[in-house]
Amino acid sequence: MSQTLRLHDYRVSVARDGVEGLALVDSLRPDCIIFDVDLPRLSGTIMYSRLRRDAKSRQLPAIVCSDVGPRPVDFGTGIPVLPKSCAPETLIETVRGATA
Questions:
Q1: Closest to 21 (Cα-Cα) out of 40, 4, 2
Q2: What is residue 41's DSSP assignment?
């Protein structure tokens, strides 16, 4: 996934867990985040909830990319949900749509 995004001229930073993900969002102020709901130390669901409570990251576009269940989570916010095995074109289209 990172390689696909880099090939399309996106800058990519990778967090190993939800705690690191929150820290990266705070320090880097990305244009979009892509996360799994199944993260160590702090689940993606809790991480996303914390991002939405913070005024600085509330409007940050987000995409779930996970293989947890047939449809990992319904955040009720229209957040796109993709399987990790999605086609590269689908990933790029979804990122473009989220950041438009």
A1: 40
A2: S
The stretch 41-50 carries a mean pLDDT of 92
H helices within 8-100, ranges in order?
Answer: 18-28, 44-53, 88-99
Phi, psi of 34 (to 5 degrees): -125, 125
| 17-22 long-range contacts, CB within 8 A, separation 24+ | 17/41, 17/42, 18/42, 18/43, 18/44, 18/46, 18/47, 21/47, 22/47, 22/50, 22/51
Angle between helices 44-53 and 18-28 (to 10 degrees): 30
Q: What is the pTM of this model?
A: 0.87
